[in-house]
Every structure is written in structure tokens, then in C-alpha cells.
Design goal:
This protein has one domain: Glycerol-3-phosphate (1)-acyltransferase, CATH 3.40.1130. It contains 8 helices and 7 strands. It has a 7-stranded mixed β-sheet, with helices on both faces. The longest helix is centred in the first third of the chain and has 26 residues.
Length: 271
Amino acid sequence: MERRKKRTRLQKRDGIQATLEGYRRFDYDYIPFGTYTVPDAGFKYRQGLFGRLCSGFIRGFLWLVAPVLLKVAYGCRVVGKEHLKALKGKGAMCVTNHISYLDTLFARAALGQFRAFYTMAPWNNKKGLGGWIMRHAGMWPFSPNLTATKHLMQEMERRLKEGKIIHFYAEQAMWINYPKPRPMKDGAFYYANKYGVPVLPVFFTFRKNRRGHMRRLVLHILPAVYADETLPRGKRIAKMKEDAENAWRTCYEGAYGIPLEYLPDRRKNKC
């Protein structure tokens, strides 16, 4: 009975994803948001002494526990670490596909527990202990509040100068176990151009376990994308995004041995 219920849930999820893919709604978040708080002008992106101590403890705990958990539960493997080393300790933006509730843990294991910070949508700024842990683990919620956004940008610039990596889920929405790359949003590339840093594309793929199920994760760190300074700002941002999307596509096709193809377009008025 439990297996049948699980299979039904998976079929429902796959059906939702297929429908959204057919209508090209790649940024639609079909998972309920839950209870959250939108950051206001008083939200503190820069932590005080107590916050930094808590952050150090949480990051240290994750540094010890996360690699073991990910290896045992998901067989997570990281390839392309040389591309991270090629940054030579300088700041960068990072873009990954969003395929799991735990993929932030996967990214942490690859980018470094103490080096990376993670942006998230306002609805991921949860209330209660869970939200407190997320914020002190280096996760920054975006906000429609202009003052809060200004504070976020100030902290982002400061951390980039320290050689930190700012992580974005460039597809915007989380699609559980969805293997294909989806179109990226401009945000990470806008900030990369604003602060003069490269973008590091990272892509998750799945591989089969001993039972033949696609449950094992591989995290691919790809070569960094740099801005073409000869182009005007708008085209420079578009070119960086295009290069990162092409890197994802090449990674996908190499990992699965098939060309990237989406379901037929079901929109009546195709754009």
C-alpha cells in the first residue's frame, strides 16, 4: 500500500512538471510555501557578534555532518573542483539548478561551508527555529522592500570583496528530481556585472544506484563565466547568461548521453 501511495505521489509530481514544461512555465513553483515572513527595512543581513558565533557553530556542524549524510543517503559525488580552485580565492556568483530540498547542503559540500552564502526567495524566510537556522547558516532572503534590498546589496558587495561565493537558484523554482536544465533568470548575472565578478555554473545530474534507480547525485562544477567588457551592459549580462545556460546544456547532454529536448510546446500563442 505504501509503495502504491509513493508511486502515485511521484506520478502526480511528474505530471505537474510535464504540464508546466509543455506550457513553458519553467519558473512556476508548484510546492506550497508554508508560513514565512517578508524581510522589512529592519531585517539584519549583517550579523552581530552573537549571530556570527551562532553562524560559526551551525556551519561547523554542517561541515562535520553534511558530507557523511550526503554520501550515505545520496551517494553525492563532486566533479570539477579544479574550476573552483581556478577562482584563486576571489569572489564569484554561483548558479545551480534547484532539484531538492537538500541541494543547498550539496552545494555547501562542494563550495565550502564557510565560503558560500545563499540567496533565497522571500517565501523561504520561514518562521520559527527552522528559519532561524537557515538565516544563521548563511541564507539571505530577497525582499520587495527597497531598504532591505539596499542592505542586502551592501552585504553582498562586502562578502564578494572578502572572496566569498554568492549562490543563486537561477531557475527560481524548485522542481524535485527534474533532470533537465531550465531557463535562468537575470539576477545572478546582473549582480556579477555590477560587482565585477565571474559566475560559476554548477549543475546536478543523477546516476543509477545498484537497483537501477536514478537516485545518486553528481554535482558538476563547471568553468567560470566572465563578462565580455567590450559589450554594452545589457548585452554583457545576456551573454553571460547565455554562456552559463550553454554550460548547463553541455553538462546535461554529456552526463545522460542524449540531446536536451523539451516536451512539445502546448501554448496557443507561442512567444
